[in-house]
Design a protein that fits this description.
Blueprint (H helix, E strand, L loop, with lengths): L20 E5 L6 H9 L3 E6 L13 E3 L5 E3 H4 L6 E4 L5 H10 L5 E4 L5 H4 L4 H7 L4 E6 L16 H7 L2 H5 L14 H24 L3 E6 H8 L1 H8 L13 E6 L4 E6 L2 H10 L14 H6 L1 H12 L4 H10 L3 E4 L3 H6 L1 H5 L3 E4 L9 E4 L23 H9 L3 H9 L5
Parallel strand pairs: 1-2, 1-6, 2-5, 6-7, 7-8
Antiparallel strand pairs: 3-4, 9-10, 10-11, 12-13
């Protein structure tokens, strides 16, 4: 990987968050994505996993096999680069005590268990604050922990929060069911990013005051923030029926090799589009005199644009549209994303060597945050389950080999 924009050969390789220590009681993606971003920026992230099952993301599919013969799922592989793994049974009293002894050695303790689950185990914010008053404690859950919610007992995955935000109804076609998870785990990743913002803000305040605090982020809240147009436009009278969309062109069009999208929201952009695709008559056509007309007669526009693009690739069509001042983008397949020259130049395609004899590496996105004052290096691979248990408990808590053997034999650690 190369240095960020403007960095030179003397730019330090130490991440901007070097020295920040994060103890993560986490699983799947809603928190692990965010803690991985912290690790990529230099933080030391120690991940607590269950001794037998590990992070539930390890059991996801597709999967590869680790050196011990255990399956490691795709969800885990793409969310845990650069972390260290400690396996502790949180339900065992000795396991809970180990976490409470570890907590004061970390700046941040974070978790994404079901609402109130860790408090029942004696590892909630009040429990950790009692041994570490300056802790910044982050909780990510479906519906929050610090206020009441009629949905507080519901299990929450990304799609649940996305659906409740209004995003799915926004694009649903008449008479059709909603398209679920149209952009992958937006509910997880988006919430995780808000969690990182809240965590860094709380750390900034702690640096100024010496006082830690509880950061409570709900997936439902986060998706309502992402879907800001849903409530905002409705309040201002934009209330289209399903399938009507907004009064603009934001649609897919055919090219010789696939699809591309065009966004036109203003009259001067429509004039550019009509001129470029050889349909100047659209400018005098009463059907297209208003933005609502564009929407009502979108199929006529779609046919005209597709005719113009029939001898062009999607990228060629978008180059021509961009040169004319019209926003457009090709609809890439996974293979095209992996091979895209922009993403390769920006180090946004990370390859993880497999350990099960498969030649092709696991591919996952890189770090989108580029800093001129930091020369980012390739991140370490995700940890094997419990890979650092003995090392960390010995170094941090001074446990002897006999102590570790007792905890292993009793199933508290692994």
């Amino acid at each position: 990987m190369r240095a960020g924009p403007g960095a030179d050969a003397d730019t330090p390789h130490v991440g901007p968050l070097a020295g920040l220590r994060v103890l993560a009681l986490e699983q799947m993606q809603a928190l692990p994505f965010g803690t991985q971003l912290l690790a990529r920026l230099g933080a030391d992230v120690v991940k607590i996993e269950h001794p037998r099952t590990g992070d539930l993301g390890r059991g996801s599919l597709p999967a590869m096999v680790d050196p011990a013969g255990r399956k490691v799922g795709a969800t885990f592989l793409r969310n845990n680069l650069g972390k260290r793994s400690v396996c502790i049974d949180l339900k065992a009293p000795e396991g809970r005590d180990l976490v409470l002894r570890l907590a004061p050695r970390f700046d941040v303790v974070c978790e994404n268990f079901k609402r109130g689950a860790l408090a029942k185990l004696g590892l909630g914010y009040d429990d950790v604050r009692a041994v570490h008053p300056a802790v910044v404690y982050l909780s990510i859950s479906g519906f929050g922990n610090t206020t009441s919610s009629p949905y507080g007992t519901w299990p929450a995955y990304a799609g649940v929060a996305e659906a409740m935000s209004g995003l799915y109804e926004w694009k649903r076609q008449p008479g059709q069911p909603p398209t679920v998870s149209p952009v992958g785990a937006l509910g997880d990743i988006g919430t995780s990013l808000f969690g990182v913002v809240g965590l860094l803000a709380a750390l900034r305040q702690r640096d100024a005051t010496g006082v830690g605090q509880y950061v409570d982020v709900a997936m439902f809240d986060s998706m309502v923030a992402f879907a800001d147009v849903v409530t905002n436009y409705w309040s201002m009278g934009e209330r289209p029926e399903p399938g009507q969309g907004l009064k603009m062109i934001l649609d897919g069009f055919r090219a010789a090799d696939g699809w591309f999208i065009v966004q036109v929201g203003r009259e001067h952009e429509f004039e550019r589009l009509a001129t470029l695709v050889g349909r100047p008559q659209w400018l005098d056509d009463e059907r297209f005199a208003t933005r609502a007309g564009w929407r009502e007669h979108i199929e006529v526009l779609r046919e005209g644009v597709a005719s113009w693009a029939a001898d062009k690739t999607s990228v060629e069509a978008c180059h021509a549209l961009a040169n004319a001042g019209v926003a457009a983008g090709p609809v890439f397949s996974a293979a095209q994303v992996i091979d895209d020259p922009h993403l390769r130049e920006r180090d946004m395609i990370i390859e993880i060597d497999r350990t099960d004899g498969v030649a092709e590496p696991v591919v996952t996105p890189g770090n989108p945050v580029k800093l001129s004052g930091w020369a980012e290096t390739s991140p370490p691979r995700p940890p094997w389950q419990g890979e650092h248990t003995d090392q960390i408990l010995s170094a941090e808590l001074g446990l002897s080999p006999d102590d570790l053997a007792h905890l292993h034999d009793s199933g508290v650690i692994a």
